[in-house]
Write a structure and sequence with these properties.
Layout (H helix, E strand, L loop, with lengths): L3 H4 L3 H22 L1 H10 L20 H6 L15 E5 L8 E5 L1 H18 L6 E4 L7 H13 L2 E3 L6 H11 L3 E4 L1 H13 L11 E5 L5 H11 L2 E8 L4 E7 L7 E3 L4 E6 L13 E7 L10 E7 L1 E2 L11 E2 L4 E2 L4 E3 L2 E3 L1 H8 L5 E12 L2 E10 L8 H15 L4 E6 L14 E3 L4
Parallel strand pairs: 3-4, 3-5, 5-6, 6-7, 18-21, 19-20
Antiparallel strand pairs: 1-2, 7-8, 8-9, 9-14, 10-11, 11-12, 12-15, 13-14, 16-17, 18-19
The structure holds 5'-O-[hydroxy(phenylacetyl)phosphoryl]adenosine.
5'-O-[hydroxy(phenylacetyl)phosphoryl]adenosine binds next to helix 6, strand 7, strand 8 and strand 12.
Amino acid sequence: MLEPEIETMPRADLARLQLERLRQTIRHAYANVAVFRHRMELEGIAPKDIRTLDDLRRLPFSTKNDLHDNYPLGMFAVPRDRLVRIHASSGTTTGRPTIVGYTRDDLDTWAALMARSLYCAGVRPGDIVHNAYGYGLFTGGIGVHYGAERLGCTVVPISGGNTARQITMLRDLGADVICSTPSYALRIAELAEHDGVDLRGAPLRLGVFGAEPWTEAMRMELEIRLGITAVDIYGLSEVMGPGVAIECHQARRGMHGWEDHFIFEVVDPQTGEVLPPGAPGELVITTLTRQALPLIRYRTRDITRINPERCECGRTHLRLAKFAGRTDDMMIIRGVNVYPSQIEEILVGFAGLAPHYQLLIGRDGPLDILTVEVEATPEASAQSYAHTEAAIAHEIKSRIGVTCEIHLKPPDAIPRSEGKAVRVRDVRKR
Ligand code: DLL
């Protein structure tokens, strides 16, 4: 273990550390970020009023809109010349990217947390880490890179894309660990099989996958096809990047959220009310050590549950359940709430299907209709398509309760991702 004294800290000590850091963060944000100061003034709260961790609930939420409204650097708490790096995530709603930044200390914290996370996942010093997360403005590539170097690994900074070369490098260098989005790992597995390269016989033993929702069914698929143990990693640019939470290789039942650097709450996405441990809702994160971009009660829009029980690995930091999706990815089809991950759970492992899919939301008069496009395997005969389509539609209707159309597509018809997969296409807007 990298930092046993912190990772297994008694929860009472962890709470004391959190309170001390929370108060410091609030003083820092209040003094340096006009948006936070105005909001707190409107609520009639001053930094000195935050005396316990429960007082956090008195503070207003912050959202991605705050970052957009104060684009590009209006939410920053340090002068521009203290920023040593900028990252950004692509803008979904407004088209504007979300800009984030780091001081030298922020980068140091991030590398240390990523090293801690990779160790927690089972990566060890000396391992060859094939890093196929995209390098650049996206935090995945560079975030994992510095963490793996800090841990003492040999990093192969291949980034995403050029899948044939990925396979050559994986095989020839004998990588121990692959890091990528789960959808891209599946693409690599698929091409390796197609080209007759057996990665299962290679030293490769571990996959660290994240940056998009993925299911237990997909985990099993990746483990079998790549001959690895697959571990889930979570993070978001706004609060740091990858390394906010990760599964331990011992239990792989929920991701340890690093509570010495973040406070995690789960709230009702509609009312904002804080939910008790175990209830599913929207994850809200408060940063405790960020200098450049402190965020207080940031609404992530990601849906999960908190498990505060001590883990069998000995770590005391809480666990976040595998993410069901994002509030903005939730489809409401004729009154039924559906996440893409629920459909994925059914498609993966269905005989004759390759787990490449897209969900199309269209309109038939006043009614929304869901069409599932999914690929058949090369072995499946075109004559059996209609039968498989009916079987999938039946399964989705009985397990999720929505009626949908299934379009089985020939192999390679669904676009492959080299980063985050696009699962939902809303064709109503066209
Ligand atoms: O995706 C950071 C990252 C890179 C995480 C590499 C893990 C590995 P963003 O581009 O800002 O940052 O996107 C953040 O991606 O709010 C979630 O909706 C989603 N996401 C990230 N990890 C997971 C995961 C990076 N393990 C957004 N499961 C987040 C489900 C995830 N969704």
